[in-house]
Amino acid sequence: MMITVLRVVFLAALAIIALSSPGFLSAASLLSLVTTASFVGCVAVGMTLLTVSGNIMSFSLGATVSATTLVFTAALLSWGIVPAIALSLMFGALVSLAQGLIIGWLGANPLVVSIAFFGLLIGIAPWCTDGSSLFIPPGSGQEVLRGKLLGLPIEFLLMVGVAVIGQLLLSFTVFGRNLMMVGSSRRAAEAAGIRVWRTTASAYLWAGLFAAVPGMLLAARYSKGNMDYGATFDYDAITAVIIGGTAIEGGRGSIVRTIIGVVIMEVVRVILLLHGFRQEWQYLISGITILAVILLQTTITRK
């Protein structure tokens, strides 16, 4: 049912754009759309894993993206591209792993923990750079993470890679099965011998690792690290997860449907921009869409 609704919404949105702007369906326009959607897409994959685990949502992944732009830039300027990529991925993974351990091991509220880490990242990262952006000179190696490979944008290819890894984890591994069981019933998972704290911590580790990817890509794309990047990614990723039909209470979800949700959001944004609507309209429509999907999920569940 949810997949059918998503298909109808997606096709309707594409039809509206095609009628209002015939040039939109060109290869260049579509590549531009998926490239822009790729940043939120990576975050949304991690957000899906967290939501499936029953840990509501995280409000610190966007801040992780922002802080990663600074980590990547600083490491790139000091040691080069390979250490910069490695340190950025480690940073994202460790920041989220710390949250997962606090939540899974100590039993802290996931929403409160994510808000606390949001504050820590937003406060500490700019303090380390004296509140200024870090700029990357041309030829420093950032070109590796931008441009095209086989005619496709690097950003899009990395998002596809992240999505494939996320779906494989969720559908074909013991970790994925444990994650769904923990999300469905924590007590049942514990009774089945699943180490809930380890499963929770692992979900956060993967989410942080995936969030580090757009952080590196944004820094490479704009040649600077800036805490403003990723500011709205939490909201956008949560919206995509909900549009994709992942159960808010946990226990079930799909990475593929989440990515469809991300693309739908980007298509809607393009529609609004083409017709001269301000950004406020995008948030209004997102809010209405979330309410509609929640009502639809509730209706389906009751039936």
UniProtKB/TrEMBL annotation:
Keywords: Cell membrane, Membrane, Transmembrane, Transmembrane helix. InterPro entries: ABC_transp_permease. The keyword Phosphoprotein does not apply. One of its GO terms (molecular function) is transmembrane transporter activity. It is found in: Cell membrane. One of its GO terms (cellular component) is plasma membrane. It is a multi-pass membrane protein. This is ABC transporter permease.
